[in-house]
Design goal:
Strand order of the largest sheet: 1-2-3
Structural class: alpha+beta
Distance between the termini: 36 Å
Largest sheet: 3 strands, antiparallel
Helix content: 40-55%
Number of strands: 3
Strand content: 15-25%
Length: 86
Amino acid sequence: MAQVALEIPARGAYVAVVRLAIAALARSALLDEDVADDLKMAVGEACANAVLSHETAATSAPVTVSWSDLGDRVVIEVGDRGMLYD
């Protein structure tokens, strides 16, 4: 089981770094190229939303991204500590 965790500053420029990391991890997990592209897009959008949430909340907390290759599936989590909604 491969696990990778990233913390990035909540700034838009770092979303591209996460996309590159996800693409590399997907290739190393031998995922189909179309699946890798979909993951890269989805995780990039989640990170962009987290960055926007942090900017709105004026917090300096990092955005976190974790990758877990469980053999039969890959779990990717994007965490942010931006705005809380009721």
